[in-house]
Amino acid sequence: MAEQVCHKADIMAIHDAMDVLNGKWKISILSTMCYYNRRRFSDISTDLAGISNKQLSKELKELEQNKLIERTVLATQPVTVEYSLTEYGWTLQGIIDDLAKWGSTHRKVIMG
Amino acid sequence: MAEQVCHKADIMAIHDAMDVLNGKWKISILSTMCYYNRRRFSDISTDLAGISNKQLSKELKELEQNKLIERTVLATQPVTVEYSLTEYGWTLQGIIDDLAKWGSTHRKVIMG
Would you call A52 helix, strand, or coil by DSSP? Predict the structure, then answer.
C-alpha cells in the first residue's frame, strides 16, 4: 500500500498564510514596499493601477493590524505618511520575489 | 540622489500571479494536490475544513481553466473524478512549500 503521510498541518499552515495575504491586492501592496522600501499612499495607488483609495486604505489597515507593515507620519508641511515593511513583513521577501518570477512567466504563457 | 529603479514590471507580474491565485482557497487547493499527488473532490473538501461544495467546485473549475490542474474521470463504478496538478501547476511547488513554512511560523507568532 502506498505511503500515506498526513499533510493536514501543512495545508492548515497555507490556509493561515492566505488568511493574512488574501485578496488580489495584499501581496502586490507588500511588494511595492519590498521594492521601494518606503512608499507613500499616492505612490502605492499609482503602482497598483486599478485599486480605489477606499480599498487601498482598507488593505493597508489590515496589513498594519497583522504587523506586516508600519505607518510613519513625517513632520513635513503638509504631513507625509509613509508605509514600510516591518521586520516581520520582510520575512515574505523570498515569496514575493518568487511570485514576481512566476507571474512574469505566467504572463508569457497566457499571452501565447 | 538615491537610485530610483522602476519596478512596475515586477509589481505587474505579482498582480498577474495573484489574479490566478486569488481568493483564500486557491493556493490551499493546489497544495492538497502538491502534497497528495491525486485527490478526489471529497478528499479536498475534507482537507480544507470550511469550504462549501459549491465554492470548491467553482475554484476547481477556475484552476482547470487556468491550466494549473487537470481532472481525470476513472471508469470505476460509480465513476471517480480525480484532480491533479498539471506540469504547469507543479511550477508553483516551491512557492507552496515556502508559504506553508511561512504560515506555520505565522501561526506561532499570532498564537504568541
Answer: coil
